Amino acid sequence: MMDLDNEQELKSLDPGKVAESIESFPVQVKQAWDEIKNINLPKDYSDAKNIVVSGMGGSTLGVDILRNLFKESLRIPLVINNHYQLPAFVNQDTLVLLLSYSGGTEEVVAAANDAKERGAKILGIAEGGSLGDFLTQNNYPLYLFKPLANPSNQPRLGLGYTFVGTLAFLAKLGFLTVSEEEITETISFLAEISKGFVAGAAKNTNQAKMVAEKLVGRQVFIVGSEFLSGNAHVFANQTNENSKNLATYFIIPELNHHLLEGLNKPDQIGQGLVFVFLESNFYSDKIKKRITITKEVLNQQKIPTVGLTLRGATKLSQTLEGVVLSSWITFYLGALNGVDASKIPWVDYFKKKLSEGG
Question: Over the stretch 278-287, which tens digit does the pLDDT of each residue have?
Answer without folding.
Answer: 999 999 999 9
